[in-house]
Amino acid sequence: MIIGMGIGLLSPKFEAKTKMIFKDDFNRANSDVLGNGWQYYNTGSGFLTTFCIDNNTAAPKSAITSANAFQDCGVSDNLKISVKFVAYANFSGITFRRSSDPLVNTMLSLRSVDGSTMRVDRWVGGSNNTTIMTLSGLTLVNGDVWSVECNGSEIKVYQNGVLRGTVVEASGQSNTSHGIMASGNLTARFDDFTVEEI
């Protein structure tokens, strides 16, 4: 008699598999640039290296200009972009489905607005943005991990693995760059940035 045969069939455990496209834990020496292939927003007169490494986190370098850094990951659909907000700052967060030409600067973003609000915005030409979803009444705590899942025109936003909102947005579905941003502050800090296929 064989004991235990078939137990796995009685209680199967299925796990979703993901494929890591890009990961950066920022664990390297302090530097005036992020390194690791990060690109920066082009002002037309040159690239601004607006993020640096500070104590093993990504940190904005200037309170005067908007800090933007991104990776061209080669995927725009069926993906999840995540980052840890080590320190929140207003108008700082994730950029996704960003145009590969940084001078065009067309993208979507998930940003903190204040101590209890996150917002998903659509950007065209890097100037005017349109809010497409507002998440309010949240408890935002340094160390939160925010994620954006893109599946076709459906965008889902998660805080620490908890679904906070879903919105349909058709723009940018062919854009393959994703990253981080901080607008006019020096206090934002990010860690553990990942892009995964789902």
Condensed summary:
The protein has 198 residues and is mainly beta. The protein has one helix at 7-10, and strands at 19-24, 39-40, 51-54, 57-60, 66-72, 79-87, 92-98, 107-114, 117-123, 129-135, 144-151, 154-159, 162-168, 177-183, 189-197.
Summarize this structure as a short list of keywords or feature phrases.
mainly beta, 198 residues, six-stranded antiparallel β-sheet, Jelly Rolls, 1 helix, disordered N terminus, seven-stranded antiparallel β-sheet
The major β-sheet equals:
7 strands, antiparallel
CATH architectural name? Sandwich
Number of helices: 1
Find the structural class using helix and strand composition: mainly beta
- Binned, the helix content reads under 10%
- Compute the number of strand runs: 15
Question: Care to describe what's here?
Answer:
This protein is mainly beta and 198 residues long. The protein has a single domain (18-197), classed as Exo-inulinase, domain 1 (Jelly Rolls), CATH 2.60.120.560. Helix content is 2%, strand content 49%. It has one helix spanning 7-10; strands spanning 19-24, 39-40, 51-54, 57-60, 66-72, 79-87, 92-98, 107-114, 117-123, 129-135, 144-151, 154-159, 162-168, 177-183, 189-197. A 7-stranded antiparallel β-sheet has the order 2-5-14-7-8-9-10, with no helix packed on it. The longest helix is centred in the first third of the chain and has 4 residues, at 7-10. The protein is globular. The termini are far apart.
Show the helix and strand layout.
Blueprint: H1 7-10, E1 19-24, E2 39-40, E3 51-54, E4 57-60, E5 66-72, E6 79-87, E7 92-98, E8 107-114, E9 117-123, E10 129-135, E11 144-151, E12 154-159, E13 162-168, E14 177-183, E15 189-197
Antiparallel strand pairs: 1-15, 2-5, 3-4, 5-14, 6-11, 6-15, 7-8, 7-14, 8-9, 9-10, 11-12, 12-13
